[in-house]
Amino acid sequence: MTRGASGRTLRRGLVLAAIVAVVLPLLVVTVALAGFADVRQAQGKAISVLTAQQFQQDADMMHDAIHADVLAAAVNSRTGGEAGPTLDQRVDAHVAQLRTDLTKLEGFDLPPGLAADVRQLRPRLESYADEAAALADLALRSPATARARLGEFEADFRALEQPQASLTSRLAEAAGAETEAADSRQTQAVFWTAAAATGMLLAMLVLAYFLHRLGVGNEALLLRLREHSERLARSNDELRSAQQMARVGSWRWEAASGASEWSEELYRILGLQPNMAGDHAELFAGRVHPDDLRQVERERRAAADSGGDIRSEYRIVRPDGVVREVVGLGTAVRDEQGAVVRLVGTIQDVTEQRALERMKDEFVAVISHELRTPLTSIRGALGLIAGGAAGALPAKAQRMADIALHSSQRLVRLVNDILDVEKMAAGKLELDLDLVPAAELVDGAIEEMRAMADLADVTIAALPMDAVVLADRDRVAQVLTNLLSNAVKFSPPGGAVLVSAGPSDTSGMAQFMITDQGAGIPADQLEKVFDRFTQADGTDTRAKGGTGLGLPICRGIVDLHGGTIRATSDPGRGTTFTFTLPMAPHSGDHAASGPLPVGAVLICDDDPDVVEVLAAMLEAHGYSTLRAHSGAEALTLAVDQAPSLVLMDLRMPGMSGWETIAGLRANPATAEIPIIILSALAPDDMDVPAASSWLTKPVDQHDLLASLRRALGADQTTSVLVVEDDEELGEVLRTFFIDHGVRARVAHTGAQALSMCREVRPDILVLDLGLPDIDGYAVVEAMRQDERLRSLPLLVYTGSLLTASDRHRLVLGETRFATKAGESSTEFAAQMISLLRKVTSRP
Predict the structure, then answer these.
(1) Cα–Cα distance between 478 and 530 in angstroms, integer?
(2) pTM over 0.70
(3) Whose CA is closest to 130, among 70, 180, 183, 219?
(4) Distance (Å, rounded) from C-alpha 782 to C-alpha 784?
(5) By residue range, what is the domain housing residue 511?
(6) Are residues 584 and 607 in the same domain?
(7) Are residues 703 and 792 both part of a single domain?
């Protein structure tokens, strides 16, 4: 080849290299920019539809609120209730809010079908709002005329319910579809950007090989290649600019020199000018929120020392005062000897994402309160009616009341399961750990499932166990009752369920096993049963009932404790569910051999049936019981367990009741225990031993409970103030306390509660948190400032989700917590009676 031909070939090669070096990076940048622009557009559509859905839900709520206000206006005009102008103003306010929601809703860029529905629904809602305002105004001037028009107004209200529900459902479906489309487009954008970049690298390698084959090695060519490299670097900078759309900045820290490098996007996230001069450590520390700085520095030092990965969430404050939320990720790069040579990582701005999550959390909290409060009223009222509080019901009415109560309890369980699943998904389910005997947990769960098992003709038995676990008592009880409920439901009539607990093969863990004799679970379904809304056989949902949330909740609770849960099955012969919990250190030292809680009643009678009936009667009202069938056994139990009261039969073989009472009075340890005689003999037949009262068999339950309250000091002089803004629930709680022999008053606002407490200090305060004027936290804080009220015993009764910090803010004197619609009436009664006893037992 001649020198001229070689030169022409070299020139052509250089021209080709220049074209490739410029065009390929620009092509990669174009692909990246186009892809991420499409992603941003899709995300914008998703957020637009989500926001439109929220305004539609608010409009739906205003639609309901206007309806309620108009009905209230018409009713109050007849009954002399709330002043008309106030309700009229409320209607006007809700109408104005509805118009605002409709205006904003129509302003969103929605899919054509949804936009048409919005435009079609708006005039109907506005007409309905005009009709409501006119009807409320008419109720002020002519109540009779207004009531005459209520039927037409009610029809208009009903006619709008289905279109609104349909629009809300379609908006939710559209939001989900847009979100999926945005995720799909983001995946595609990343894929094609990576593919283009890979193609560019391959092309550059081929080009380098081609140039090498041409023998380009002179200084002029090297200079040109350097220019092309710089051009390539600039193109890579443009590629990084395209990736900034993901709001992710990167950093690198060298262990040997301590030097660090930041990407331009990281500067932008911190609100700084790219490549701003200054020490990176100082620049970063200056931007981290002061409340988060110590945590962030501690995590980085730990990662640098140990070479572990970093993942932290914190806030940064930009120079203009804007606060952003970020997620930091980092990992260590090691040399061949395993020593850390550098740390690399990213920081992502997640402010908008967290805002959406908080919006979701607030929605769940509102739903929690707004569902649990009326459900508590419904279940409480039905429980009172079914239990005879309103008098004996005809047989048919009693059956209807029982059906309604059972259905409300199923609805409560569904709501609680859904909220528990949501808390677990959000990582907000907190545990209140304590040392708990396994036998105590198992016995409590079995007792709760006893009625269900008897109805299904299934026997539940427990093996002896002495393990003590470090666990959240209520949450583990939830796991056990869920597993026992499933075992009973899927066991055949006449079958048995066996429960056992003891040390597991894993060191430091206790193992619980629940075995049934049901049809079993196919091997390929053993893991799937722990998925949400899943059962081994879809027909089980209809035949046995349930939502498919129980086992996922069990797994979530066990996982939070650091344990595991699994299922094994022999199809046709039964299934065993096994879960583990951490054991308490030296569990044998904490076995349940100490005295029972305050309030235990010792029942002494030689007739086992009488003892069993009396124990069931007392335990149904929240009392703990001890059982003795002879005087000698009663003396031993009284010394060992220190009961708060003794129910004593007189005529018993061996040591009689008189002798047993004398023995109790002779021992200083038992001399002060109140005694109630329960005998077939009348007190006129003989001298009355030293006792608090005398009841004649057969005893009336009301007389027995009244005698216990008098003997324990919890008589009618005990008073409770219920603070609850929901009037129906307040009345249910007041009736509950009256039925238990306790005076009760109800306050509907925080200010009213403070005023009533200061006028007459109650013995116990039952407090809801969501009050119309000041919340429950403010009520507690005000009481802490009052010398007379700062030690007031408190039961917080709320549908809200409480964190450990929330509970700390709510502590007054003896403080307990109960969840609306989350606890049965028996559990609530046990909480209250226990608290009453603590109050009345103090000197």
Answers:
(1) 15
(2) no
(3) 70
(4) 5
(5) 433-590
(6) no
(7) no
